[in-house]
Amino acid sequence: MLAARDTVGTTLTWIFYNLAQNPNIVSIIRNELSPIASNKVAAGVDAMVIFEPDETKSLVYLKAVLYETLRLYPPAPFERKTVAADDIMPSGHELGTGDTILISLHSMGRMEGLWGKDCLNYNPDRWLSEDGNKLKYVPSHKFLAFNSGPRICLGKDIAVMQMKTVIASTLWNFDVEVMEGQSIQAKPSCILEMKNGLMVKLKKRGM
Ligand code: HEM
């Protein structure tokens, strides 16, 4: 449950929080959804338009939004490795058998050396190719949110698919407004939850 439910739930909370601060990004997502939505009919006045996994597969900008959130708010904020044999890191640090290495994914996502001068900005465009039609290749040892190597997250594709369908359906049907007066803080633990949760108001969009 921790691997599959808490990671996805936590990421969705941070996504809706970030999107509420960036209405221009919400508009770009809705533009990307528009051709799919125009082929779907919501049954009844209050009915929702629901996006299916196959329909959101090709949505490149939505995936960039997802990855940008995971870069800044990785739900598994630390990775722990145990040294199997004495070694010397490329940095020159000496490691002894049995030592524990803690890697902060949260810090890695905010390092200027890895992501450039705007590393603290929420900018999904950094994931897009120059023509904006596909995602840039970013190696998993740089973007470690799903881990890297033989113990990479087995549920990565399912997680991406689940989150894309939830974001698409929510944003197409509702305006999401974050309630004022909340203290938004991360709670450092094995999952990067929002300490006080996130209260939002959903307003049905007129379409
Ligand atoms: C936002 C969503 C998710 C993120 C960021 C994420 C991240 C991770 C990370 C960092 C690990 C490596 C943990 C470690 O060994 O230290 C991991 C492992 C794993 N994840 Fe995910 N995960 C997500 C969703 C899911 C989902 C939805 C499933 C199942 C449907 C899943 C199944 C697994 C499994 C089975 C492993 C263990 C793989 C192994 O050790 O061989 N994850 N995940």
UniProtKB/TrEMBL annotation:
Needed cofactors: heme
Protein name: Uncharacterized protein
Presence of the UniProt keyword Cell inner membrane in the record: no
One GO-annotated biological process of the protein: lipid metabolic process
Pfam families linked to this entry: p450
Record organism: Triticum turgidum subsp. durum (Durum wheat)
SUPFAM superfamilies registered for this protein in UniProt: Cytochrome P450
Record's keyword terms, sorted: Heme, Iron, Membrane, Metal-binding, Monooxygenase, Oxidoreductase, Transmembrane, Transmembrane helix
Protein family (similarity comment): Belongs to the cytochrome P450 family.
GO molecular function: heme binding; iron ion binding; monooxygenase activity; oxidoreductase activity, acting on paired donors, with incorporation or reduction of molecular oxygen
Coiled coil: none
Binding site for heme: C153
